[in-house]
Amino acid sequence: MPEPILQTRELFKFYGTDAGRFAVVREVSFSVRAGSFVTIMGPSGSGKSTLLHMVSGLEPPSGGTVHLAGQDLYSLSEKRRTLLRRDLVGFVFQFYNLIPNLTVEQNIRLPLLIGAGDGREGGLLAGGAADPAAAPAPSAEDDVERLVELLHIGGKLRQYPHQLSGGEMQRVSIARALAGRPAVIMADEPTGNISSSAGEEVMRLFRRCRDEFGQTILLVTHNARDAAFSDEVQFLKDGQLQPQARLADGQVSPEAIAAALARLGI
Ligand code: ADP
Question: Which of 159, 190, 207, 209 satisfies CB 3.0 to 4.6 Å to 92 for a cystine?
Fold first, then answer.
């Protein structure tokens, strides 16, 4: 059994004041094997985004631990955590998080520029010296071209995010997350704004990332069609995982997902 690349123990997240705190994520413990495609499914408001932000290093938990590639994320300094995330994780944000004053092409190349141009101390986002026109390594160049083609955004490369539809922004944010061929792809509702056929293409692309490059995928979604592409499905209800409903490797199918959702009443 290979070591899990991601492991959480008893994760909690509280919001609110001390007078009225409420837990949006409670006691969440799970692990993800390197090279597997895992989905956490739950309805809107069940805590999926909060959980994904915590496991990626973007949002400190109120309690519990996250180990990513063997490192205890929240025992690291914020700077080390940011560097680890940059090295390992490609994140597809629910609301895209594209940089408004960069073109589509510059947005997609951003992870490559940050990794390559600046001794990892700043780069474009920090106003550092990285040049948006600088050429990344050839394999990264091939990857970008391939992603642009697969995601049908070749005609948009010189446009700015505000000139794109929601679906186009979503596809650009997926290309950006995959461009550096990260070990782990984390995706928050990545097909929410695209047609079901385009969504299916994205899920097939994730599977190719797993099959061809051994990348690990962690998806959070309320979409059962997307979840059916994964190796394993976990269910989140009111901030808590439902381990009795977990569909392990070999058990995932649209019918099994539908049955689990019905049993859980979600
Ligand atoms: P999901 O991704 O499943 O829709 P979220 O993680 O976005 O769920 O949100 C879970 C709950 O936490 C929701 O009730 C939401 O309103 C609340 N929540 C999320 N972020 C914050 C925040 N920064 N402050 C207060 N409440 C929040």
Answer: 190
pTM of the complete model beyond 0.85: yes
Q: Among 24, 186, 219, which is best to mutate for testing ligand 1, by the most ligand atoms less than 8 A from CB?
A: 24
Number of Cβ within a 10 Å radius of residue 116: 18
Assess whether the C-beta atom of 45 lies below 6 angstroms from ligand 1.
yes
> In Å, how far from its chain's centre is CA 122?
22
Where are any strands of DSSP class E within the chain? Answer: 4-15, 22-33, 37-41, 63-68, 71-72, 89-92, 184-188, 216-221, 232-237, 240-241
Q: Could you list the mean pLDDT of each consecutive 10-residue stretch along the chain, which spans 266 residues?
A: 89 88 96 98 97 97 98 97 96 96 96 61 34 54 89 97 96 95 97 93 96 96 97 98 97 98 96
